[in-house]
Amino acid sequence: MTTPPPRRTGGLGRGLGALIPTGPPSDAVEDPVAVEGARFAEIPLDRITPNPLQPREHFDPEALAELVTSIREVGLLQPIVVREIGVDDDGPRYELVMGERRWRASQEAGTGTIAAIVRETSDDDMLRDALLENLHRQQLNPLEEAAAYQQLLHEFGATHEELADRIGRSRPQISNTIRLLQLPAPVQRRVAAGVLSAGHARAILGLTTPEAQETMAARVVAEGMSVRAVEEAVQLALADAPEEEKAPRARNRRPVPQGLAELADRLSDRFETRVKVDLGRSRGKVTIEFATLDDLHRIVALMDADGQHPEH
Packing angle between helix 185-193 and helix 142-154, nearest 10 degrees? Predict the structure, then answer.
């Protein structure tokens, strides 16, 4: 029987916050180097005010409620970004730069404080490069890694190519790591604690419902299953599942007509995510994958920008 990986000590991880030191570096190998122009801090929620120029006025209540639950169960993996705007008798005050939805959800979750990157510069390129350099140096747990990838992509203007080049990983590896954020909170806790490896988690993602994923995760821990054993168990579970819950079977896939694969690659590059283009007998289908609700908003914004052409 294969024993699970050793349990990690400490919290569940904090994404980019794990890459930014809070004080002078120590002699520990894993300590991040200083990031010029930014520092990490836990800030009281009532010391932060939203950005008055925030263009987004509506926050989906259902998605916000899901984030509140995730914060209560797993914690905040992606720190917000703020800038200091002054000091009063109670200390520094801050203004949100990125992450109002996370700030609102943390208020509702009653966390009291929130993990934040305090920006001391407006140079996005400098911050992005410094964070990428620290990402290359650090040994993060899989959820820290996934959250850091996603935040660098969506808030700091990094591209999949930059991430792949700087940390020596392929684009599919980056996409598969980000997918770990789709796991239900109880499974994420096991991954962050080191009870489940990233390989186990990716195999569990093959199941189509959160309930099935949680059940499989508990079984992996109880039985000490190897990644290969989990993959086989997932395939058996899918074979026994009702037809509507099954993943598409390979035998039902049609050969991709010439040109569609190239088009899918172009769309994948444009939206920086996996895109599939399928052509049936009477109609076609384009499937665009997204990691989170914020990721979906990013993709829709790109679509809107593409559709805005000046009239001639």
Answer: 110
Q: Which of 141, 136, 135, 116 is nearest to 9 (CA)?
A: 141
Domains with residue ranges and CATH for the chain: 15-169 (3.90.1530.10), 181-245 (1.10.10.2830), 254-307 (no CATH)
Query: Is residue 161 annotated as part of the catalytic site, yes or no?
Result: no
165: pLDDT strictly greater than 50: yes
Percentage of the chain exceeding pLDDT 70: 79
Kindly report which listed range (51-55, 120-124, 169-173, 255-259) carries the lowest average pLDDT score: 255-259
pLDDT tens, position by position, 63-94: 888 889 889 888 888 999 999 999 999 899 99
Q: How far is CA 41 from the centre of its chain?
A: 20
Residue of 42, 100, 120, 231 marked catalytic: 100
